[in-house]
Amino acid sequence: MAKKKKKIIQTAARKLIAAANPKSIVSEQFRTLRTNINFSMPDKPIKTLVYTSASPGEGKSTVAANTAVVFAQEGKKVLLIDADMRKPTVHYTFHLTNTVGLSNLLTRQVLLEDALKQTETENLHIITCGPIPPNPAELLSSNTMGKLIEQLKEQYDLIIFDAPPILSVTDAQILSNICDGTILVMSSGETEKEAVVKAKEALVSSQANILGVVLNNFVLQKDHYYQYYGSGE
User: Alpha carbon of 141 to those of 28, 231, 232: distances in Å?
Assistant: First the structure.
């Protein structure tokens, strides 16, 4: 039993490679992603950023978590919010409890300070999903959500939302409409072209500011190095 538990913890730690191994090639790729995000909107700083994917299992949660880490390592005060209130995973990645989180905040059950969680990475805070609600889309589109984002903007340099896959539910479209930028994550060799096109159309219809696409699980042919970003959500 202890061996199985240790294996689970090691797997989760491996997903957070920007913190576990900051000198690795993959961590350098996340820093390149950070640079590209910084340069994507030169006239207006990005304060709110959404990560989504076309379908489940493409690694968008892992990419969002590692992006949050590298921005915090740069010295920015960063908040990562698990807005996937259907299949939350951020609390697993950072080994946190999920008893109180975003769902509690949006139903006004707790204060902001009760939902914020510190991580081992300096400058990085987390708001986990909290108890899974029956109406995630309604909560995300509520006035309470809008007020929460404005409150958080005053306290953080960057707020990153880990949103559900965009072709599964409307949650990512709702968030993309109210945030400064959106990044679409797709898995190399697995994501179907038709799904990517539909995902882009869904984002465009919600008037999202699409900053770009992250190609996940990509194999470099030159030296056959496999870039691990995480195979699951």
Answer: 35, 30, 27
